[in-house]
Amino acid sequence: MESITNPLYFFTGSSSTQNHSSTSSNVIRFIDILDFFFIAHPASGRKEGEEHKRIMYFHPKGESVDRQTEVTGFAEAVVNFTDNFLTSREINSHDSDNFDYRTVSTQKTEHVYIQIEDNNFLMGVALSKQLANVSEYPLFQPAIRSILCDAYKMFRMFFGTYSSFNHQENDSKFKDRLDFFFSRSVPLLKCHKMPLLDHLGGVEFLRMSGPLYLNVVSLINELQEEFQQIDKIMFLYQDKLLYYQLSRRDLPTIFRYLTQNLLPNSIGPELEGANNRAKGRYLRGPIELSTDEPLLGDESLPVVHLFDNQNGEDEYLQRYQMLVYRCLNSTVCMFVKYNTENTNVSRRLLRNIDQFLESELSQVANRIGEEIGSEVSEPTDFHYIYFNPSSLSMTSSLSSRSSSSSKVAIPPVEVNRLVCDTIGKFISDSEEFGECFVKSETDWWIVVKKVNSRLLVLIIPPSSSTSSLADIQSKTSHIVRHHFDAIFFT
Amino acid sequence: MVLLGESAVGKSSLVLRFVKGQFHEYQESTIGAAFLTQTVCLEEATVKFEIWDTAGQERYHSLAPMYYRGSQAAIVVYDITNQESFQKAKNWVKELQRQASPNIVIALAGNKADMANKRVVEYEEANAYAEENALLFMETSAKTSMNVNDVFMAIAKKLPVGPTQGQDSQGTVDMNQPQQQSKGSCCK
Amino acid sequence: MEIEVPGGSLNPGSGESGVGESGSEKSFSVLQVDLADEESERENEKYLDEEKEEETAEHLLERLMQLPYQVFILSESGRPIFVNSGNEEQLCSLFAVIGIFVERIRLWGDNLITISSNNKHIQFLHKSPLIFCIVSKYPEKLDEQLDVLFEQILSILSKSQLENVYKKKGDNYDLRKLLRGTDRLIESSVSSWRGSPISFVDSSISVIPMNPSDREFLANTMAGSLGAAKLEGALFGIMIAHRQIASYVRFKKYIMHPRDMNIVINLVSDKSLQLSDASTWTPICLPKFNDTGFFYAYISYPWQSQNIPACLVLLSVKRDHFDGLNEVKKSIVEKLEGNSKFFQNFSAAVICPNLFNISQIGNFNESLWSFIYLNHSSKQVCISASK
């Protein structure tokens, strides 16, 4: 494992799980319902008697090779069998990151397989229905698929594509990497008890006034003008997004990494050194900036693979060094193209950026803090999910990192399941408009509105004032007027 | 009267040609058995045919006695382009001789005579077999209607003239006759 | 005789004729039809003759994919029995894979239910000794479609016969020998199910709209004639048109499950039975009633020559009831034709059926667009026209 020199700070283990324990009622651990998880390279197992060679990674590790071979073989056969029934157009639609997928449902399990990188690789997961029941998690195939795709994208962000490993010649290096990454990341994966959140996979934006937003944009412009090496920037306040220049394909992945892994693990030190909060700092890389020593070992900056399209229309993966600078709840994430030949980000550059941001960022962060602090949002008497697919903006009272709270307890599992079923069966993906009112057997109401592709789901607990459809319609319009007026036109 | 024979030899086509004068190139296979009637003037007498057109499939085989018991006549049909169906026809004749009424009039019809170029069952062979077993024999074609009326008429002429003719419920399955346990069928 | 008056009168008691009582005391055992023991030695050969021209498997598959759905039925050993394009022999490798999938999951101590991809949904049903599989663009109710298929097969063979044949003749037996000529029934059982606007309602029967008093007259007439015949074991009488029920009469204590009813409807709707001046007598197993025995169905289209597509079905558990039921039919037809006002209305209702009208449930709600009414106990469904 000598070549993994980057400080792999992702998933630093138990501390982050504990950080989340206070809100853990919103989520469950993926591993608690997991039956198996695998990555296979079917071409490596074509020879008779060598079928097991297609297995690149398998969880649980203790599983016999026979069983691993059966599982991956079955998955491959399912893919091939289903291909018989798909027209060639349907098979070849693996542009962008809409991976071709198969699902298998048995009496005891739900499987999802995705085909990635020109169908050269197969990833699969099976969840146990019984364990899901115990965890009060409603299995929803599209959400499982999203979780699997996200796991792949996270790997790709840190290590590049599977194909780039030239595994034919060097399987063991590839397997080491997969093992290194997934053995750490899979145990930390979380599933929302409302699976729709994992399925939609949006990011939470900070709502703020126009002048303030312009302030942020001009700060970023100045920063990029001053330091032209910086290719892409994203800006967060607390764990909400304000601004980004990344491809939409990367945004949810990097957002999730920052808000679920990096930032929670950095908040600890921040709270301790309360007197230093106004002083900005880099969350990764060297602490000592005053020298000009080369950045090596623990001090070197992380490299991530992000999509770029500067040379034309097609996006391609490009390596970037990632700089994460934080000051007063604000985080600026900067990406500098990484070339092995060129000189890369140096201590000196870090020092200069620090000097630039130190004053500018704390001013902006203060203004944001003032504006946010003045808005006290009342806890709602309902649950909601809002998602805008064109901006990827998502906000929900059921999200694990939600700052917006609801007085209402988390809906019971059958209501969450009904929400997923309603979306899956009555709201078309391709239609831009739709509306649906559903009443659960326990008298919860589920309202789904889709307007211009924007989705609003309201989950309203039983109450005497919402017994009829007319009641719920007026309640819905009241909620939309008071809470979603700015973002949701009716 | 009952029509018996392997499936797809043309039993329904013969009956439809005789009763309605129709022929369909793609005749659907019969379900169970169809019951049709046709009244024909024959010299001085009027003959009312009550015809059971049975399905030839294996699964209906054990039901056949229900239709042929009490029948005064049977047409056993085979397809001249299918040796197998001729063998099946012989089996039917055997079964009728063993189990049906002893006075039953049996005709053997080699159907699809219009497809002579695909013939595999020779006229002479079938004719010799019919003579051996005292059967009426004709090659027929429901498509061209060759010998179709003739085979029905030939049977009518061989039936005993008397009060049985022209009456309802005669010359067909006699439900009052106690049923014997036939081999391979099981009645509870 | 107790009468069910679908969609019409709420007073079904009027049809209780005394005659019915005589049989209601006894329970009817249902006859069994057994397999012929002797098997033709060269049975297999004949299938080859039927294939008009050879088609490559790829070509066939391509053609199959043009269909809105594909249905596969196979034995547990993976032997092809049915595919809705015909030509199952050509697709034997596909059949084998279906069998292997089911077996694989079974070896893991589990049951395969569905496989799906972006816009194909594949449902599996393993009912020993058969395996059913449907591939469809839409996921709705595929499980029920396979149940319907399974029961369709049972209606032809009965469960006991189906199980026995594999016991007697081994796992490798080619069931197509026994099912010969029924492809179109199997096909239509699913296609009509899918084509029906009520398919989303579990196992229901749709009712042809008729004037309630006409329906009552029809039901009374059928019950009267069937009762007067005193045929012990003749349990059900149904008038069917356009795959919908006009009337249904039954012996007290005996109820026909809607799924069984749909099997009868599917059978009588077969084109080969729609012959004028003919009637059909055929065994049929109604699996929900009794999956080990057979009913005998008397089927006739009494007015086919006048282009009135109504079918009268009389069901008995006795195989020697043909003559008796033939007389019942004559009596029913005579009485119905004798009431000329009724017969005129009936003909019109059956020849060109209307949908139920919204005004039939009152005009209190002007914004009402359409309604569907399901009677939970009888499982009968009425669908209105839309405004």
TrEMBL record, chain A:
Q: Which residues form the CCZ1/INTU/HPS4 third Longin domain?
A: 380-476
InterPro entries attached here?
A: Ccz1 (IPR013176), CCZ1/INTU/HSP4_longin_1 (IPR043987), CCZ1/INTU/HSP4_longin_3 (IPR043989), CCZ1/INTU_longin_2 (IPR043988)
- The protein's superkingdom reads Eukaryota
For this entry, list what GO says about its biological process: vesicle-mediated transport
Q: Which GO terms describe its cellular component?
A: Mon1-Ccz1 complex
Q: Which residues form the signal peptide?
A: none
Every CCZ1/INTU second Longin domain range: 230-358
- Outline the extent of the CCZ1/INTU/HSP4 first Longin domain: 34-160
Q: Which family is this protein grouped under?
A: Belongs to the CCZ1 family.
Tell me what this protein is called.
CCZ1/INTU/HSP4 first Longin domain-containing protein
UniProtKB/TrEMBL annotation, chain B:
A GO biological process held by the record = protein transport
Q: Which UniProt keywords apply?
A: Endosome, GTP-binding, Hydrolase, Lipoprotein, Nucleotide-binding, Prenylation, Protein transport, Transport
Recorded superkingdom: Eukaryota
Q: InterPro entries annotated for this entry?
A: P-loop_NTPase (IPR027417), Small_GTP-bd (IPR005225), Small_GTPase (IPR001806)
Q: Name one Pfam family in it.
A: Ras
Q: Which reaction does it catalyse?
A: GTP + H2O = GDP + phosphate + H(+)
User: What is the protein's major site of localization?
Assistant: other
**Entries under NCBIfam families matching the protein:** small_GTP
Give the record's family classification.
Belongs to the small GTPase superfamily. Rab family.
UniProt-recorded name of the protein: small monomeric GTPase
From TrEMBL, chain C:
Domain (FUZ/MON1/HPS1 second Longin) ranges:
233-333
Q: Where is this region: Disordered?
A: 1-28, 33-52
Superkingdom, taxonomy of origin: Eukaryota
Organism whose genome encodes this protein: Caenorhabditis angaria
Pfam families per the UniProt record, alphabetical: Fuz_longin_1, Fuz_longin_2
- A GO cellular-component term linked to this record: Mon1-Ccz1 complex
Family in the record: Belongs to the MON1/SAND family.
Q: InterPro entries given for it?
A: FUZ/MON1/HPS1_longin_1 (IPR043972), FUZ/MON1/HPS1_longin_2 (IPR043971), Mon1 (IPR004353)
What exactly does this protein do?
Plays an important role in membrane trafficking through the secretory apparatus.
Q: Which residues form the FUZ/MON1/HPS1 first Longin domain?
A: 70-187
Extract one GO BP annotation from the record.
Answer: endosome to lysosome transport via multivesicular body sorting pathway
What name goes with this protein? Vacuolar fusion protein MON1 homolog
